[in-house]
Amino acid sequence: AGVGGAELFEDDDFVPPPRPHLGDLELSPDVYALTGAELRRVRDFTIRRPNVGEVTFPGELDLVRERRVLDELPTIVRLEQGEAVIYPDHAMKPAEGEGLNRPALITLFQCKPPPGSLTDADSKARYRDRIARMTEVKGATFVDYDCDNGIWRFRVSHF
Prior knowledge:
Elements: E1 2-3, E2 6-7, E3 26-28, H1 36-39, E4 42-49, E5 53-61, H2 67-76, E6 77-80, E7 83-86, E8 104-108, H3 121-137, E9 141-146, E10 151-156
Antiparallel strand pairs: 1-2, 3-4, 4-5, 5-8, 6-7, 8-10, 9-10
């Protein structure tokens, strides 16, 4: 029987869906290798694309209750150079707090300024401030930006 459209499973009866083709996405923990009991308490779930970026969902996720995440992960997450998009198809986006439409820490790699544009500490500070303002304008919370390594971190309350 279901509640609100969600199937109810005993942890021993829950069979995770087969691993979809994820391309170069990496998952930590590897949710497709967890038991039903472990899937009920997935802590700090991180989706990463090497040299591009990662999205971490702090706290615990119940991926038995949120089974759609397991079924649809390749269509839910898009990590590209300079951007992280969760639910690119707005018709698939659940209400805030459901699925992956929840608070997250996003880290983007290779977000370097144009070569030769930052020649001293003052220009780096101004560029970092510009990135911070741009982050806030987009509705996110700026965490950090490392000019030298091109690493940009910010938080969102939902997608």
